[in-house]
Amino acid sequence: MAESAACPAFQLGRPRYDQSNFYGRLRHFLDVIDPRTLFVSEVRLNECMKLLDDFKHGTLPPGVTDLQLWEAQKIKQAIIHPDTGEKIFMPFRMSGYVPFGTPIVVGLLLPNQTLGSTVFWQWLNQSHNACVNFSNRNATKPTPASRFIQGYAGAVTSAVSIAVGLNVGIQKAQRFSPATRLLVQRFIPFPAVAGANICNVGLMRHSELTEGIDVLDANGKVVGSSKIAAKHALFETALTRVVLPMPIMVFPPMIMAFLEKLPLLQTHRRLVLPVHSLMCLVTFGLALPVAISLFPQMSQIDVSQLEPEIAKATDSKVVTYNKGL
User: Fold this and answer.
1) DSSP output for 12-72
2) pTM (2 d.p.)
3) Where residue 1 falls among pLDDT bands split at 50, 70, 90?
4) How many angstroms separate the CA atoms of 242 and 265, rounded?
5) What pLDDT digit, counting tens, does each position of 52-90 carry?
6) Any residues with CB less than 8 A from the CB of 286 and at least 6 apart, and which?
7) Do residues 100 and 91 touch, judged by C-beta distance below 8 A?
8) What sign for the dihedral angle of Cα 57, 59, 63, 68?
């Protein structure tokens, strides 16, 4: 009885934890971003997919537990795109976002940035974000390569323009003392990254607004393509991408401004970068699951809010769509 309470009965394609509340979504996305799934071998992945396939067809070997099935589904969902059925390239999986993104965050928050280093780190960050957005998009409709290039160029341009513009503005601000100017400059990455993230999501996934995304009934059957659901999906994703960099870009500069005044770091300047990197890793690791837990990945919407043709195509009062990550 205790085991069944801790581990619910397995449901194929359904989350293990209740997605109607934040805590359930947080536990779900802690599984999604679990970096241990980056080390899953091809053999182990195939075993998991076979186990799930056996469950689907009712040919499950005796002795397989619900816990094993949930673990198999966790591994598959961390590696395989839910719409395309293809493997997501390791650095662009959500489970790789913190390990591969932390060095970039460290670079973005380095003090005394030159114009060249500002452009480089903003470009690298938006390049990584563009690939993550594209790899975890709603892929129920094909996206042309030109759309990817357009979104990528727009995101990089907006990030670099905001960051460089703010840097130049602060350098020219006469009322700031050199110490205040340096402190303010450390916070510039946040508005630059947040603004570019919105641009990135909007441009990279603009085709969803023009073509719509698939919506599914309670049985998982596609009942139509909705532009209204696409608007909801993009808004939720964009909001997540604004909330995500907030603690990452704000807390480490505040903490480091305090720590750098301590005698230990004053006398051992070589420790500044490792301590800074640790701050970024911790805040990134904590902020990511919280931010993406704001909304369920498979979101629901009332049919009454959608296009009339969707309402005519189903008897369901609520349909589901893949928001993407």
Assistant:
1) TTS-SS-TTSHHHHHHHHHHHT-GGGGG--HHHHHHHHHHHHHHHTT-PPTT--HHHHHHH
2) 0.74
3) very low
4) 32
5) 999 999 888 888 999 999 999 999 989 998 888 889 999
6) 247
7) yes
8) negative
What are the start-end ranges of the H helices in 205-323?
A: 206-211, 227-243, 245-259, 263-267, 272-292, 308-313
Tokens of 130: 């563009």
Torsion region of 13: left, alpha or beta (phi above 0 gives left; psi -120 to 50 gives alpha): left
What are the Cα distances from residue 14, in Å, to 10, 82, 98, 137, 321? 8, 12, 25, 19, 13
DSSP class of residue 89 equals P
β-pair partners for 80: 87
Residue pair 94/31 in contact (Cβ under 8 Å)? The answer is no
Cα 303 to chain center, whole Å?
27
Run of H or E including 271: none
Question: Residue 46 contacts by C-beta under 8 Å, 6 or more apart in sequence?
Answer: none
If DSSP codes are grouped into helix, strand and coil, which group holds residue 302?
A: strand
Cα 33 from Cα 317, distance rounded (Å): 32
User: Comparing C-alpha atoms, which of 140, 25, 135, 16 is closest to residue 75?
Assistant: 16
- pLDDT tens for 145-191 read 777 787 778 778 877 887 778 777 766 666 666 766 666 666 777 78
Cα–Cα distances in Å, from 317 out to 219, 222, 231, 300?
A: 13, 14, 19, 10
Tell me the pLDDT tens digit for each residue of 274-312: 888 898 889 988 888 998 888 887 888 888 888 888 888
Cα 305 to Cα 323: distance, rounded to the nearest angstrom: 16
The DSSP bridge partners found for residue 321 are: 299
